[in-house]
Amino acid sequence: MTVSQTLLVFEDLDSFDKYSSVLYQWLEADRHGKSQGAANTTSGENFDQSPLRRTFKSKVLAHYPQNIEWNPFDQDAVNMLCMPKGLSFRTQTDNKDPQFHSFIITREDGSRTYGFVLTFYEEVTSKQICTAMQTLYQMHNAEHYSSLYASSSCSMDSLASSIDEGDTTSLLKLQRYNSYDISRDTLYVSKSICLITPLPFMQACKKFLIQLYKAVTSQQPPPLPLESYIHNILYEVPLPPPGRSLKFYGVYEPVICQRPGPSELPLSDYPLREVFELLGLENLVQVFTCVLLEMQILLYSQDYQRLMTVAEGITTLLFPFQWQHVYVPILPASLLHFLDAPVPYLMGLQSKEGTDRSKLELPQEANLCFVDIDNHFIELPEEFPQFPNKVDFIQELSEILLQFGIPPEGSLHCSESATKLKNLVLKDLVNDKKNGNVSANNISMYELLKGNETIARLQALAKRTGVTMEKMDLSASLSEKEKDLKLQCEEAELRDYQLNVQLREVFANRFTQMFADYEAFVIQTAQDMESWLTNREQMQNFDKASFLSDQPEPYLPFLSRFIETQMFATFIDNKIMSQWEEKDPLLRVFDSRIEKIRLYNVRAPTLRTSIYQKCSTLKEAAQSIEQRLMKMDHTAIHPHLLDMKIGQGKYEQGFFPKLQSDVLATGPANNNRWVSRSATAQRRKDRLRQHSEHVGLDNDLREKYMQEARSLGKNLRQPKLSDLSPAVIAQTNWKFVEGLLKECRMKTKRMLVEKMGHEAVELGHGEANITGLEENTLIASLCDLLERIWSHGLQVKQGKSALWSHLIQFQDREEKQEHLAESPVALGPERRKSDSGVMLPTLRVSLIQDMRHIQNMSEIKTDVGRARAWIRLSLEKKLLSQHLKQLLSNQLLTKKLYKRYAFLRCEEEREQFLYHLLSLNAVDYFCFTSVFTTIMIPYRSVIIPIKKLSNAIITSNPWICVSGELGDTGVMQIPKNLLEMTFECQNLGKLTTVQIGHDNSGLLAKWLVDCVMVRNEITGHTYRFPCGRWLGKGIDDGSLERILIGELMTSAADEDLVKQCRTPPQQKSPTMARRLSITSLTGKTTKPNAGQIQEGIGEAVNNIVKHFHKPEKERGSLTVLLCGESGLVAALEQVFHHGFKSARIFHKNVFIWDFIERAVAYFETTDQILDNEDDVLIQKSSCKTFCHYVNAINTAPRNIGKDGKFQILVCLGTRDRLLPQWIPLLAECPAITRMYEESALLRDRMTVNSLIRILQTIQDFTIVLEGSLIKGVDV
């Protein structure tokens, strides 16, 4: 056995760790053909690969200093992230260029540490390892040659990179290329050096590491031993103070780093230029939106540094918000099980060369944003709202990118090799003397590519969209300044810094505009931090409904979802806690920017406009960076000789030396200003931390409260990379299960509270307000949760939706068992019986039937969409919990599909989960009907006559027309003497009215209808349309058609729930009793007195006023408020019936319409005499209008009865604001004395004046009548 002592160095500005990737365990070849070296390859490694293409376990060789109290060294995590794939070997024929990448370690408390790694290859000097490699090759070839003879194509990816796939693969060629010969080949092994820092000084660390590597590989030894440079950066180079720049010295040249000031955007050193080039502007904005909405984001690339650059770039743009969930930009191969996490995450996965996206098996994709960085391609989740002002936003960003010569659509070839090539081209252009001898720095790429087709296209696009594309004058302005000041860094670096800050300013400006008045909606009720932390879960911290009602309409789809995220909740928590603690730095900068906006915009309303406002601080931000880099504020101590033992620090070209640990273990005594300054800063940091730990409560209790308070939607803290024992993995999965259950409880509670409205407020659950939009957001969030639950612990993933896949397999099993097909349990709404014996047949409750409804919807194309539609349908039918319980009752199927630790196999938690979903049955949702508005729906209608009083058979031809919020069916003929019919039409939405009538043909034409029932056969919603009147000439009011107003029936289960809660029942349509009482059967019921009638009018008008004061999406049916049981028509009928002489005259009923017609006859034949000419004109006009409306109703091509005509008159008078003019005319008409008793309300002047005033209150509103109410009436 032999161990290779290759190494890798790590460091933190306080910690420099020497590392090595090691061939962990090698045993000589087993003569019987199996190498135990195989056991040491990384888990899951493919043994079909040649030994040189396999990866092996790496190991930390050394790290300096050994430990730091406040930043303990996590050996396993650093080892894993330094070499995520493990240790690898190469020969002299392979590419051995050093590779730079960075990583991040996020601790459980959310604090971050950055690592910067340079991986290179060193020659293997151990003969034992070289011999072991050759033996491994001999075994590998022996196993695979036989299969190669059988197959003409070679699938092995172990051929050296020089082989072309198209080559004919003879055995000799294979033996030559696919082998390692100890006498012919030189073996190299990977090694890494790494710096670990508390802040992301990516550029400076990269330069320092490259210089360190050059010192080892150059022919001349470095000026000083390597220990001097490492000791210098560890102990003598301080962090630059905020707002200052610092120069320190590497091996060959100085290195510059700078830090933003307290009022600037926080430090970000990753070049956003690369992010935009890799993704393209449009794609980046879409991915950015997914991150804001806390979806699952998976980045995919062959290059580790690309993964890190894109992840850090996008999270940097979130300011002032911060990503709160799992964040692993580089996911090591041994941690792939983290992709199973049923929580929002942002992870980066390395793609293998030639691996197709379709072969990548991901546990869940329903809520996944997949970003293939190398191929410039993204897959977005469904139901995805756009970022507010997206077009203008992209336009503004495009202008900045174009100024820096970057195409907004991105570039697929922005790799380092392409950059090198670009620099070579520039040098050649300068050297060939064809550019007026300008320096290479001053040649703008934009100028160079003027003739380029892409640039020409961009210029055309810019011209079309009105972008003014000025020439880059950056280099010119710099060359002028260089006379006075020497630029301390490369121009390209300065431009990257300036581009970074300008792009970030534009993103920050969007949030500043969108949330300029967020403070007004923060609810601060707690008196002290301890009480706030204790009650955090029960408290509402942000008035979401009021905030949304203040926002421009186009912003709502995005904002309603964003304010439900954990990052927004944490932002608001930080705001509330800032009254007791020091303000969070991001919050402090953000609040100061809002303050600045307020100073500029004195008129507050400009804050709430949807007009796009560009960022105005770009120039200022770019200048502050330029000033810092032009003139160094601080210079660190130069590296110097250390007190080392003689013979140490020996130089050997191409080999990183074994460093002398004693001189690197500790720093110098505090004898320089930098060390004392950083020590003071550290002491201050410790004091602050201790202070914050003991504000009000001890640290453990505080941490417990904080974790609970901030994890309302956050199921898991950052996964620990170092401990991967089965026990830890099991504990992690248990945390997932607990988190999912908690999230379910919170979501269902929120949905109930929002839906229950004012009753919930009375019970102390915060503000009552929910818009249709907010409801939709909550339901979409529930769909996401269910998908995540069904994705947790899957054995094998099938399709993008785990829930739909489970449902399909359940359906297949159920349909195979034909004898079970007859019994999909449970009856739906109880049978609706009437005295006629006619009823709606029972609608079966069937999980399979509901699935078939969804499968028949051609509008839905994806499994994710079908699963969401099925959830919405089940929620609307109040069957979600019951259906899921039935689905999970097939335990054999659940065991087949899910691992033991999966949420769905934790019985107690599963029962609680179903119970939480059951609570949603307490409220009514129309989330299926209101979303899928264009689908065809089957309806069933039943007409229920009162058979005791009407004919058993009618000879006329009946018809029906059903209307809803989304449309109507048109007139449908009903087959004679068939009282039940089914019909299919496009979704009508909530049903509002039914028109029913017949043609009065034959001898038995009169028909007494009790009610009409109509049921939506998909959702099961049943509507009852009460009638209780005759249809026929010469009976009742002579009507051959009636307009009936609908009411939604509650099932037996719902009625039990209603009894238990205090929610007032929905407005019902006029009952049969009321209809009969105001017609011929008046004497059978008690008449309301004058006070009750006046109260009824007031209530009806008040309901209409309240209707219009609600947000548009929250309003109910105006038809019910006009024509329903307590509606305006019913209330005015009571007024007109009070004191009405309605006794039969010669066996004939007298109706209100008879009085109206007499009034019209009087107005048309009489010119009234008034003193004031103006009054005469007004009254004449009112009389004329009144007569016109009544005549239009009478001549309409409809067979409506007298009460129906009165209803139309009231509706039209309300719509056209004419009722207050008509009432006094009727009250003063001579016919009133003949038809009304003296005590009648219409004959009391004070009552009439009061009625006019009440009716005038609804004149401010625009009333739109449903088409079915006034069909055929032309006014």
How many distinct helices?
Answer: 44
Q: Order of strands across the widest beta sheet?
A: 10-11-9-12-13
What is the percentage of strand-forming residues?
Answer: 5-15%
Characterize the main sheet.
5 strands, mixed
> Could you list the spans in which at least 5 consecutive residues all have pLDDT below 50?
1-45, 151-171, 414-451, 469-486, 603-607, 670-699, 701-706, 708-716, 758-770, 823-836, 1057-1084
Radius of gyration: 40 Å
Distance between the termini: 102 Å
Question: How confident overall, as mean pLDDT?
Answer: 75
How helix-rich are the residues, as a percent range?
40-55%
- What is the structural class? alpha+beta
- Please tally the β strands and state the result: 24
- Which of globular, elongated, flat, extended, rod-shaped describes the shape? elongated
Written account of the structure:
With 1275 residues, the protein is α+β, with helices and mostly antiparallel strands. It has 44 helices and 24 strands. The protein has a five-stranded mixed β-sheet with strand order 10-11-9-12-13, covered by helices on one side.
